[in-house]
Every structure is written in C-alpha cells, then in structure tokens.
Amino acid sequence: MAGSLIEIDREVAxxxxxxxxxxxxxxxxxxRVVASNIVPASDSQALRIRVGTSGTPDSDSxxxxxxxxxxxxxxxxxxxxxxxxxxxxVTYGTGxxxxxxxxxHCFNFSNSSxxxxxxxxxxxxxxxxxxxxxxxxxxxxxxxxxxxxxxxxASGNIASGxxxxxxxxx
Length: 170
Prior knowledge:
It is a single chain. By secondary structure, the chain is an all-beta fold. It has a single domain (5-168), classed as Jelly Rolls, CATH 2.60.120. It is built from no helices and 13 strands. The strands form 2 sheets. It has an 8-stranded antiparallel β-sheet with strand order 1-13-3-9-10-11-6-7, with no helix packed on it. Strands 2, 4, 5, 8 and 12 form a 5-stranded antiparallel β-sheet that branches. The N and C termini lie close together (12 Å).
C-alpha cells in the first residue's frame, strides 16, 4: 500500500462550524477520508456528513444510510435512515478521552450519471466508559458530480480534529 495514498486536502478544526475537504475529481476512482481526535464544542453531539458541489455542501433530503452500531455496554444493533439532510455518525462528547475517529471511502463522486456512495467506519470512547462504533454504507441519491465532502456537528462547532482527504492511486 506504500505510495498508493495521495494526500489531496487537510483541514484542522479549531472551533469550526464546518470542515470541508475539496479536490475530488476524476483523477482517482476512490477517495479516502481519515479523521482523528474529533471533539465537539458542546457535549453529546452527532457528527454530520454531506457531499458538496462546487465546494458547497448539499443540504437536500437525499441522504440514505444503513449501518450497524456496536456499543461495548449494550451490544450490536441495526439502523437505517432515508431522506435525511445529511448522513450522521456517532455521538461525540467533550470529556477526557472522548475524541473520535473515522475512515470513509468515497465512490462515484465525480460521475454525474451516478449516485455518490460512501462506506463509513467510525468510533469514539464515551464518558460512561464504553466504546461506540458505526460501520455501514450510505448514498446521496442524486445523479450529480460531487467534488467535496463536509463535516459538521448536529449542534454547535467542531472544537478540534484533523481531517485528511486522500486519493487512492489507480
């Protein structure tokens, strides 16, 4: 895998309302987002994810997802959401050691004749001392080319975190 990840964009949150990673085009078939040490400005906030056109996040009601939730204190459950205004991730807290991390793979983003898809792996350690993890997939069910992916909290800002967009070498 050495040399197969090409860094495209890197953003560091510092009380940021939105983090937008740009530079997605037809150069690569698959893009990867790696984010680490994500902390919300206010406690108990779910991360929200949107695709973007011309660098502007799309807020239409065309976001669908299916995922498994793994929680060390309550087991495994299935979830699905349709016709939302964003994809959602795990709920993050502001306590000691509550930072979260995620890995996303982006497919078909530059193809205007197809939907944009992602796979998502995300986890955080909560203040009630348990691990929470999402694993699943999602689709933005609009035939359009998307050139960015953005992140925001359900309410409030992203206090900190590093977000990196890579292209996967063909």
